[in-house]
């Protein structure tokens, strides 16, 4: 059965913020640009995933977004995200003739770089997942900005350890995500952000509002909520590193903007993929008793109940959020999170 709808009103905006450097959006008649949003919290069951998983595994047909493959933005990753090695040989003179022989330069090996594709992104062919790790010592959760920062800062190295080998295996760039826990209002490259809204990812940084998740209306104070939300935002970091986020931004521009029918569908595919990747991120935590299963299950339940409800359809319905997070968690295979190849009904 699909999970019942929550009884409270729409949650505040949040989620992922688009790149601010795209050319001006084409005008559309569907109204002003709407904020990206992330849903609320309900603790419910985790059913309604079997049929979805079976049908999704058979969906290999692209739904029209793989042609966005030629866009090459001029940004570059910082730190050790990209490496290029050049090998050359010097000229040598022959002792038997008066001529000089010069060797040809060796081809430059291709270093890791983002690939700006969607449904046909090469990462889906790798079959990689989030790697297991043996331990992840997390401090006791304290529901203060400082306590939340300690907990999230301790969890991130484990998440990085799970995903770094996968990106390396796919020859994609890697750099650790940054975390900023803030109160009040903070300025980001994607605009200002208030602490009364959900966490947001923007250009390699997760902006986390201190005290927000501890005081959500009808919310649940539990470390699993924080771990689940952190997995979703890290899913956006993976989209950024791989190039899929940039390709999705360009695709939205090409169809007339975020607030068009096709633009909103693209955004749902992006957000539901981050939800699926968040489910994959929790997979290593559920193995080898790394953390209590109650923490993992609460994170999955929380992610399952965030969605559009009765507001702007840009994050997907709560039942589809449930299906994607559980599909990613159970499969722990990147191809399970190819929302770009899913049917419109699966990303509604």
From TrEMBL:
Q: Which Pfam families match?
A: Zn_peptidase
Compositional bias (Basic and acidic residues) spans? Answer: 303-314
InterPro entries found in the cross-reference section? Uncharacterised_pept_Zn_put
**Keyword terms of this UniProt record:** Membrane, Transmembrane, Transmembrane helix
Residues spanning the membrane: 33-56
The biased composition feature labelled Low complexity covers 81-105
Q: What is this protein called?
A: Neutral zinc metallopeptidase
- The species is Lentzea xinjiangensis
Organismal lineage = Bacteria, Bacillati, Actinomycetota, Actinomycetes, Pseudonocardiales
